[in-house]
């Protein structure tokens, strides 16, 4: 890791932040108090096979980093951040799991904005400052089983950092430190940046969000080609109220 700055004085270990759950519920998103909404039901279906893979319940043995779930899309605007947040919220309701939601879209971070939270140090700060550790930048929330790792400040050599041995070691630490932890990564779009393809090589499971009636077949095929090294890739067909068939689906008005 590179020591490029001193540790910001405002950073505290496992700082507690308050997510406005009523606001999220009014936005139509999944919360512990939102009840059996259609979106909540969608994500109950979406999360089940992902959790089976993470727990090695599929009969094929353990998946390396199976608890690292990478949410991406071919292009911007397809709803990947909303899917990442909803999936994290849904899994946080499980009795046997804790969730770490990572904003890995370091060029255009939006997880904290969606959750109504202010900016905070995070992933890039760990990778550029050897005085920082993971516990110092993880945000605990008022959802007891949900924590957040923000993207942190922008860095012009983000791709190189995400491909570094420091990042690989950090991902191993994140994956293995707690046996019950599921880690959801909101990643950059696959066809816009190179960061997503770099990160995808170290993930156990990939979920690609496809915007209904907008994303072209060519874009989907090209995006899938960029993550073909991962054997566990799933699709969410997003922003539609009708789904003619398939394994994963979801929608947002």
Structural class: alpha/beta
H/E series: EHHEHEHHHEEHHEHEHE
The number of distinct structural domains comes to 1
Largest sheet: 8 strands, mixed
Can you describe what's shown?
This protein has helices at residues 21-26, 38-54, 80-92, 111-114, 123-128, 134-137, 158-162, 165-176, 195-200, 217-226, and strands at residues 15-17, 68-73, 98-103, 139-141, 146-149, 181-186, 205-211, 233-238. The chain has a single domain (17-238), classed as P-loop containing nucleotide triphosphate hydrolases (Rossmann fold, 3-Layer(aba) Sandwich), CATH 3.40.50. Helices cover 33% and strands 16% of the residues. Mean pLDDT is 86; it is low at 1-12 and 243-253. The protein is built from ten helices and eight strands. The termini are far apart. Helix 2 crosses helix 3 (80-92). Strands 1-4-5-3-6-2-7-8 form an eight-stranded mixed beta sheet, sandwiched between helices. With 253 residues, the chain is α/β, with parallel strands linked by helices.
Short précis:
Residues 69-229 form the AAA domain. The chain has ten helices and eight strands.
Relevant terms:
253 residues, alpha/beta, 10 helices, 33% helix, 16% strand, globular, disordered N terminus, disordered C terminus
Write the layout of secondary structure elements.
Blueprint: E1 15-17, H1 21-26, H2 38-54, E2 68-73, H3 80-92, E3 98-103, H4 111-114, H5 123-128, H6 134-137, E4 139-141, E5 146-149, H7 158-162, H8 165-176, E6 181-186, H9 195-200, E7 205-211, H10 217-226, E8 233-238
Parallel strand pairs: 1-4, 2-6, 2-7, 3-5, 3-6, 7-8
Antiparallel strand pairs: 4-5
Helix pairs in contact: 2-3
